[in-house]
């Protein structure tokens, strides 16, 4: 491997650094400083386990837009493999986009699976949920512009989507999410109604005549 991009430095993503000898390893300066700074271990980083010889190269973003992402850094001369900022899970998290007739979004931990992305669910680790939500909106916006296969690290379905080149169907997925949220609201309204007026279906709470 000539180049390796570390989306963030939590130990489940940085534990293999000892195997990338001879590669250019990219990470953001902010992520590196956060991991090695005071309290880094409390935040889920284990820098004492990194190889002593490791010296990262720091990502330098340019004002080169990729859809809703206003910054990027190219890893190739052709500009078809790009790093984009995806803050949320950590403040300096990044992802990689491989462009083509179908593009691939190597998402790290932007969300734990595609369903959570489309439902707008923020993980419990994100320091600022609003930042994560904006990143989710940008990813979905990019998927609305072009066929995009979303590949978060912890999604067991990522392998299938990669093999099948299964792009996000934004319209149908968002419609399903909207239906699910509407059903949840209706269920809550029904429970509230039953609480106020009795359980009509079973007869419990219905006044006797």
Strand and helix map with partners:
Blueprint: E1 3-5, H1 11-14, E2 24-27, H2 29-36, E3 57-58, E4 73-74, E5 81-85, E6 94-98, E7 103-108, H3 114-119, H4 129-145, E8 148-152, H5 158-164, H6 170-197
Parallel strand pairs: 1-2, 2-3, 7-8
Antiparallel strand pairs: 4-5, 5-6, 6-7
In short:
By secondary structure, the chain is α/β, with parallel strands linked by helices. It is built from six helices and eight strands. It has two domains: 3-168, Metallo-beta-lactamase, Chain A, CATH 3.60.15.10; 169-209, no CATH class.
Can you describe what's shown?
There is one protein chain. The protein folds into 2 domains: 166 residues, 4-Layer Sandwich (Metallo-beta-lactamase, Chain A); 41 residues, no CATH class. It contains 6 helices and 8 strands. It starts with a strand and ends in a 12-residue tail after the last helix.
Main beta-sheet strand count, sense and barrel state = 5 strands, mixed
In total, the number of strands is 8
What is the CATH superfamily label of the largest domain?
Ribonuclease Z/Hydroxyacylglutathione hydrolase-like
Would you identify the regions where 5 or more consecutive residues have pLDDT less than 50?
196-209
Cα shape: globular
CATH architecture of the largest domain: 4-Layer Sandwich
Strand content: 15-25%
- How many structural domains does the protein architecture include? 2
Multimeric organization: single chain
Strand order of the main beta sheet, please?
4-5-6-7-8
């Amino acid at each position: 491997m000539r180049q390796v991009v570390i989306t963030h430095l939590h130990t489940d993503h940085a534990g293999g650094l000892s195997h990338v000898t001879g590669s250019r390893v990219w990470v953001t300066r902010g992520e590196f400083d956060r991991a090695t700074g005071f309290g880094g271990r409390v935040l889920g980083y284990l820098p004492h386990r990194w190889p002593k010889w490791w010296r990262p190269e720091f990502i330098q973003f340019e004002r080169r837009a990729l859809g809703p992402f206003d910054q990027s850094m190219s890893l190739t001369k052709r500009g078809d493999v790009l790093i984009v900022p995806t803050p949320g899970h950590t403040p300096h998290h990044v992802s990689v986009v491989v462009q083509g007739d179908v593009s691939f979004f190597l998402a790290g931990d932007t969300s734990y699976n595609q369903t959570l992305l489309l439902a707008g669910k923020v993980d419990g680790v994100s320091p600022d949920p609003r930042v994560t939500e904006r990143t989710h909106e940008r990813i979905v916006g990019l998927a609305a512009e072009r066929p995009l296969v979303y590949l978060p690290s912890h999604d067991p379905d990522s392998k299938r989507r990669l093999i099948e080149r299964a792009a996000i169907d934004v319209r149908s997925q968002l419609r399903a999410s909207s239906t699910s949220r509407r059903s949840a609201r209706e269920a809550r309204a029904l429970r509230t109604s039953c609480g106020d007026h009795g359980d009509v279906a079973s007869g419990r709470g219905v006044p006797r005549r």
